[in-house]
Amino acid sequence: MNLEFNGVIFRWRGPAPHYFVAVPEQESQALKSIQRMVTYGWGVIPARVWIGQTEFTTSLFPKDGRFLVPIKAVVRKTEQLVEGDEVTIRLEVG
Question: Whose CA, among 14, 23, 36, 70, lies 20 to 30 Å from 43?
Fold first, then answer.
């Protein structure tokens, strides 16, 4: 499954802050339809992701009926991204 969408980077404030983009509702529903076939546990879905010219692998996390795409520090640095930036995400699952 290949998806493309736009989203805003937000910071999850915790003991170790992380940055994410929420997958829109429609795309999250599409992911839910294949979740059981591709998860490796806890509903987490492995994915290949592209932001700008940067490609990376990560795991999509289920949260409140949607999925979150973690944005790695190296990706933020390479693409010069900060909290609040809107990005286009392409992802491949399965």
Answer: 14
